[in-house]
Amino acid sequence: MTFAPEPAVTGGQETSQTRLLRRGVDLLCRADPELAALLDAEVDHQAATLAMIASASAADPSVLAAGGAALSNVTAEGYPGARYHPGAVHFDAVERLAVERAKEAFGAQYANVQPHSCSSANFSVLSALIPVGGVLLGLDLDAGGHLTHGSPASVTGRHFSAVHYGLDEHGHLDYDSVADLARAHCPAVIVAGASAYPRVIDFARFRAIADSVGAYLLADISHIAGLVVTGEHPSPIDHAHITTTSTYKQLGGPRGGLILSGREHRAAGPDGHTPLARLMQQAVFPRSQGTPSPAAIAAKARALDLVTTPEFKDTARRIVENAAALAAAFTASGHHVLTGGTDNHMVLLGVLHRGLTGVVAERALEECGILANRNRIPGDTKPPLVAGGLRLGTNLLAQRGMGPAEMAACARLVDTVLDATRPDGDTAYHLDPRVRDGVRGEVAELCARFPLPFAHDEPAGAFAGHPPHETGARL
Ligand SMILES: *Cc1c(COP(=O)(O)O)cnc(C)c1O
């Protein structure tokens, strides 16, 4: 398989872990060719697809290898030095390393690396800070919020009494309405963060509002964590009481979540005395999770090392530059760019005025090898599975080494497809096959010219002798 690890670079000797992974890959191919072929096809698919999924990035092969470690066999509830099972000596060291690296990367004083996802991290935090039936104030789903910010479709909207803020007429966060709603409803927690919002979030302003009503501030930076680590977006760590993030979106890590805290980590919880850091430890285990996932934590440790490299900083800068260039190119070709542009990695398009729906645009693009997902937009008249918008992101384009010059080409390809798509109702459409084939060809050419960092067919051992950071280039 393409992901077969290269031999260990230390003195040409394979390590135990490398031997095990190599044997696993061999066994998988021989004993389960059906599954192996599917996994192999996915590698090729990623290499040949122009993915502009705002919530995705490519994990470095070393992150994937750490996630497949035999460490996964360790069962150990609890935290380093305080496990409920024996045999966690190496896992303890790995988890401590991941915690230290998370603190270092984000400039935090507290980190919990055990959440299996950001959804479970959010649920852990909210259930520790809000009594059942208590009030939560978060961004409305249709305005770009996340399900776990109190949507009725999520348990966070059922256990808590959720109130939602929205956007102003320009599509920017309406801070005055956040303040008004906070005064009117006295929430226990205000959530600042979004899944579909292309502008800077003013965490200091959110904190001032939270303080005015005695609420805790939870910053959820799932989408922008890579920009926060590299200073491309202001950090919430010392403004919010608690910060959560996914590890697989912009951090290039494994599936999973983190809970972080900065200068407020010793602030008192709702009982008036338990420090937030201690409360968060309990909130994850035993309150909402059982055993942690040791190999996922190893993969988080690896990714959290890579995000502090100069290469990652370069990629983050290019992510932001590319998104601005992409938004400008869409505006120039007459598309409806929400908020008129972007400050982060994300470009939101409204497609209804072109007679399209989000799902039609998504499917037509996918036929041509371009991935961007449908997205509900403010004032959307279509149901969630149809939606009136499209969300694009530049994480993977930047990881491929593309710059602003290539964004014009990417925008032109998207524009060409959308222009040639004739909708037939909300979900069906006809796409001119000649346009489709032409775009597919250009996508293939672009992907070959700008390969994903993992897609190089390096001869075995090609990384030997490189300084460690170079093997993680362009994450
Ligand atoms: C994606 C996302 C989540 C959920 O993350 P998972 O790790 O997929 O559960 C939470 N909050 C925001 C803002 C997100 O964008």
Terminal CA distance reads: 21 Å
The total domain count is: 2
Describe the oligomeric state of these chains in a short phrase. single chain
CATH architecture of the largest domain, by name, is 3-Layer(aba) Sandwich
CATH class of the largest domain: Alpha Beta
CATH superfamily of the largest domain: Type I PLP-dependent aspartate aminotransferase-like (Major domain)
Ranges with pLDDT <50 over ≥5 residues? 1-5, 458-475
Small-molecule binders here are: pyridoxal-5'-phosphate
Q: In terms of structural class, how would the helical and strand content be classed?
A: alpha/beta
Number of helices: 16
Shape: globular
Strand content: 5-15%
What is the CATH topology classification name of the largest domain?
A: Aspartate Aminotransferase, domain 2
Mean pLDDT: 93
Q: Number of DSSP strands?
A: 17
* Fraction of helical residues: 40-55%
Strand order of the largest sheet: 4-10-9-8-7-5-6
Q: State Rg.
A: 23 Å
Structural summary, described in words:
With 475 residues, the protein is of the alpha/beta class. The chain has helices at 16-31, 33-48, 61-67, 89-106, 118-129, 155-159, 175-185, 203-213, 225-229, 276-284, 294-306, 310-332, 358-367, 395-399, 404-419, 433-449; strands at 50-51, 78-79, 82-83, 110-112, 135-139, 161-165, 189-193, 216-220, 242-246, 257-261, 336-337, 346-350, 370-371, 373-375, 389-393, 421-424, 428-431. Helix 4 packs parallel to helix 11 and helix 5 packs across helix 10 (276-284). It is built from 16 helices and 17 strands. The strands form five sheets. The protein has a seven-stranded mixed beta sheet with strand order 4-10-9-8-7-5-6, sandwiched between helices. Residues 1-5 and 458-475 have low confidence and may be disordered. Helix content is 41%, strand content 13%. The site of pyridoxal-5'-phosphate (PLP) has 15 residues, from helix 5.
